[in-house]
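Review form for a predicted model. The reviewer records the input and the model, then writes brief findings.
Reviewer: anonymous (R2)
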Amino acid sequence: MSEGISKPLYNRIREYIAELILKGKLAPDTKIQSERDFSEEMGVSRMTVRRAITELVNEGLLERRHGSGTYVAKPKVTYESREMVNYIQAMQACNIATASQLLEFDEMVASLRLAELLGIEIGNPLYRVSVLRFANRIPVVLERGFFPCARWPKLEEWDLEKTSTYDLLTSVYQIKPSQISQTVEAVVAADTVAQQLRVEEGFPLLMLSRIIYGGENNQPIVFSQDFLRGDYARIHTDIKLQEIAPQIG
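Model under review:
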């Protein structure tokens, strides 16, 4: 609280509480002190504390529960449907502290289904990668990707925890994606996914299946299946009405 003396007092209090949340010192669903307790502890008026807390509520870091108090909000991320190829960027845009953990990195041979999806021969080598993404220290997204080794040479040399697939594709491999095909469906967590996402079996999830196309021949570059915790995610879509053809019945 000693830094930023020139800032308004309520703003310094807001930043102080926000820092506790973003560093994980106040976990989601934790009830914070009352306005009176904050006021007495910091030697400021309750009105100043109330304004700081209101700002944090408006930012989505806190939530008020009628008759109960004020709690640290779950870090629900609004993903734009056309931008769901970079979860790290989406979280950071919401002022959410991010972290990642590489769970799996190995080679496998393409099954019939994966060969068809990726436009390769059955038995061709693939990299199989699983990365767990955290929002404010809560595991919220499990990314599973299948990369044809011939199209992703030396993938093992890159830090897959700090870089998204999309950034690797465009910045490292210099491939411009030409098309992304993706579907979203509601599923429940099965055994392995539940264990990796650290939720109970049967927990509601959103599964996003995606193929990214690119290169000179507009070929499939990667197939991925991402599992998002349903209680930490929402998907937003803008639709331009002039793009919808009139239905003549």
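Findings: The beta strands are 62-65, 69-72, 77-80, 98-109, 125-135, 138-148, 177-188, 204-214, 219-229, 233-236.
Further findings: The mean pLDDT is 87.
Recommendation: see findings above.
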